[in-house]
Amino acid sequence: MTGTSIKRLDLVRPAPLTIIDRELIDMSGYTTVSQLLGASVYNTEGVPVPSAGDSGYGGAAFVNLRGMGAESTLVLLNGRRLAPFPGGGAESQDINQIPIDAVERVEILRDGASAIYGSDAIAGVVNIITRKNMQGAVVMLQLEDRDVKGGEAGRASVTGGYSWDRGNLTFSLEHFREKMIYQRDIPRMSDPMAFGVFTY
Fold it and tell me: Which of 96, 160, 155, 166 is nearest to 131 (CA)?
């Protein structure tokens, strides 16, 4: 159970705890964990994804609960700490390394939990629970398009598992690619004065 080390009944949950289950994940249509958490109202300004030129952050995404910074939000995988992202000064965890098809649910503890987890959980805790005891495989193919030139994206993934008397095996393979959108191809940005982007 996220946010407590005290044994208790399954019917009793620590508050405030938000759970995003597999059904909600499928209904959301999001293709990555960063998109899913970026849409959460508890995550300030979405998920910060620094550009590729910023100190080796390219392709990484972090959670920022309550606007206190990614270094104050602890990310767990099945209740265990994720390895820190090396390009981020070992202060935060990259959630893009977790394929969304392998996620069973996401538990968001929206309150400080530094007394249990330490100072890196001052803003809260995000616990990502993966699927277990899967039988068979799920193949996903998703294509995305934009209203402007560029931005086309595609994702292909295979997630599956096998269970037996003494254990289980779960695997997930994913490939995601998205084309760049240039500012010059966005109409209101190519001529900002004409569209009233800047006002005086």
Answer: 160
Phi and psi torsions of 169, nearest 5°: -130, 130
Tokens standing for 200? Answer: 């005086």
The residues near 2 (Cβ < 8 Å, ≥ 6 apart) are: 14, 17, 76, 79, 107, 109, 125, 127
Per-residue tens of pLDDT for the chain, all 200 residues: 565 555 555 545 555 888 999 999 989 888 788 888 888 888 776 555 544 444 445 667 888 888 887 888 888 999 888 887 776 555 678 888 888 888 999 998 888 777 788 778 888 889 999 888 788 888 888 887 877 777 788 888 888 888 888 888 888 888 878 888 787 777 766 665 655 544 44
Q: Return d(Cα 125, Cα 135) in angstroms, integer.
A: 30
